Amino acid sequence: MHKKMLLRQRLPARRVRSLLVLLCVFSVCCGAYETPQRVLFGGDAEFPPLEWTENKQAKGFNVELAREVARVGGSKAEHHLGNWPDVMRALEEGHLDVVPMYYSAERARRFIFTHAYYYPSHSIYALPGAVRVSTVEDLNGRKVAVEQESFAHQQFRALRVKPELVITPNTLTAIEVLLTGKAEYAVLTSLAVDNLLDKNNWKLERMGAPFWSRGYAFAVNKSKPELAEWLQDALSETIASGRYQQLYYQWEAELEPANADKTLVNLLWITLAIVMVILLLGGSWYWSLKRTVTLRTRELRDALTQREMAEQELRHVANFDSQTGLAKLQYFIEQVDDYFHSHQQPVKQEKEILILKLVDLDVIVRTFGFSRAEMVVSAFAAHLVKLNDSLAAYLGRGVFAIFTNKCNVQALFDRLSAAMVISDPGLNSQFVGGSAYWPEHGRSAGKLMRHAETAMAMSVARRRRWMAYEAAMEPSRLDLDIISIFIDGNVQGIYPVFQPQLDLRTGKITSAEILVRWQHPRLGFIPPNVFIPLLENSGLIEQITAQMIDEAVRVAVLLRKRSLPCTVSVNIAAYDLIETNLADVISQTLVRYQGVASDIKLELTETSVASDPQRVKQVLLELSELGVYASVDDFGTGYSSLSYLTMFPIRELKIDRTFVGDMIGNPRNHSIVRSTILMARELGLTTIAEGVEDDQTLQLLKKDGCDLAQGYVIARPMAEAEFIEFMRAHAAELFDISQFMKR
Ligand code: C2E
Ligand code: CA
Ligand code: CA
Questions:
Q1: Is residue 23, in this structure, part of any structural domain at all?
Q2: pTM score over 0.70
């Protein structure tokens, strides 16, 4: 019955379940057996993985299955493992109830078998290097170890093949026999041998293909059919419930070494694949990460660069003037102070702060408009940028600052002037400067800037191109005294002097310049170069102008009445032209002394003329209607072109003494003087040269066609009485130049 019902190792669960139901129904109907309280199971002590003893405990797949089957059947399994022949005997004698073993027809006669639940096979084993065999037939006559009472043992008894059998009590001993050379080969259950070889690290070779694959089942003592029936039912239920499968899966690696090997290989492959995938993923992750990092880094770097550029731009906008590209004041001061801090001791190189001012800028704006003025500023800035080892700043309204090594400023000015003539030939822009030195004049940028500014203001006041700072330039007690004296209006000690002007065409003295002198009772003699700029800048010059106009007209009328006609020339400040009613003052003075228009003429600087062209033009027109004409003083030091000046009602050009003074030694100045005379003549203007100090210059001026001359060679400025005597003494005779030259 069991033979027919042998089941495959892994039974389809549904079919088994329906079979179980049928069996249960049959059992219940028949009441075939009673559930045993405990079942004694036996087995080989050394037959892993199916069964073995470890620490006196039974282990293995058979053991666990027996326990599960007993539990499912409502009973309890008890295991007794030992040498195989003993176990077989104990089962036959009824000391054991059940022993799992290979099914065979011979055994089926001695025991009752359940369905097979497992199909192990056998193999031939030998030491490495043994003569190769491939089938059981090859073992004929060989020394072959087999386990006593094993399936193999039975088979050899039944077969024609007759090896010399070495019988051992269990599988382990069979292996030992083989290892010690007591047998050449062994025929054993592959599963158990492979397991033991692995465990003990023994080297045996498996020869040929596995064979004798047999069903493995529970064998029950022949006298216990009810137990066998119960066992079969419990086994079926264990299989049907899936519990067997679970157990099998737990033991699969050991029960199916080939599969286990495959599993191992698969596992290796899978591991390898996983490693590859991990490597690939890792690689691609690494590359993508690297790419991301690179991209992100680039993005960040770009963002950073952009930010830096924006910051730089902001810094540039904050620190540099947009029109000129030069530093702004604050940045300039910071940079200069930084330099001073880091070069304090010892000072190896003296430094200089030079402040430059385009003096005519306001005039250029009024005359030509802002854009032309901006062009001048930009051109000047461009020349400053080209200076080596210096930092230039634009402070606004035509004022610049340069931080440089202490240098020859005159040479620098000549270079800048030449560059400006080239960049804007039509506009002879003038600039003045003032310098302060580090560390001589101060140790901070702020202080040096103030001093350079003072020096620059002094240059303007003294009509000089450039001056270096001196402590004496500071607004002094004297300056304050002067201003307060004029503010009070009680000015004592003012008197005029007169300096004759020689008519080079006739040799007569027909005009003179009135110059102010101040001998103050307390302060002493104060030169006009000291107090005139102070009064012009503080709007107090009006008093002096009025007084000089008065004296000029008075003396001129006096001389005319003595038949010594002399036009007296009065210096007029820009303030007088613009802020006072000059025409009224003059006409009232003429009326007061019964003067005529030719008794007086006016000397105005180019800068005054252009400071408020409309107003000046109107005042000069009023005066020319009165018959009073004007002369342009200090001609050649400003920017004005002659054609520009002809827009104003002027009659005379007074060539500045800086050109006249050294026109003999300086061909450039001589040519300026000569061309001025020629152009003036073309335009119907008379010319007068000031600062004529020697005969040779006087001669040359006459030769060049200059109309008038003024200077020490003719006469120094003289007080009224002396001047009147001078006029009287020389009027009687007809003077010509040679007479002056003889003196
Ligand atoms: P300025 O109008 O150019 O006057 C001529 C100056 O040159 C005078 O100096 C005169 O003494 C000087 N001078 C005359 N001949 C020679 C010469 O051959 N060589 C040299 N080196 N100098 C010569 P001063 O009198 O000291 O006047 C200086 C400046 O003061 C004048 O220059 C003028 O700008 C101003 N000033 C003088 N008096 C008055 C005035 O009454 N009103 C105004 N607003 N300014 C005046
Ligand atoms: Ca003058
Ligand atoms: Ca002059």
A1: no
A2: no
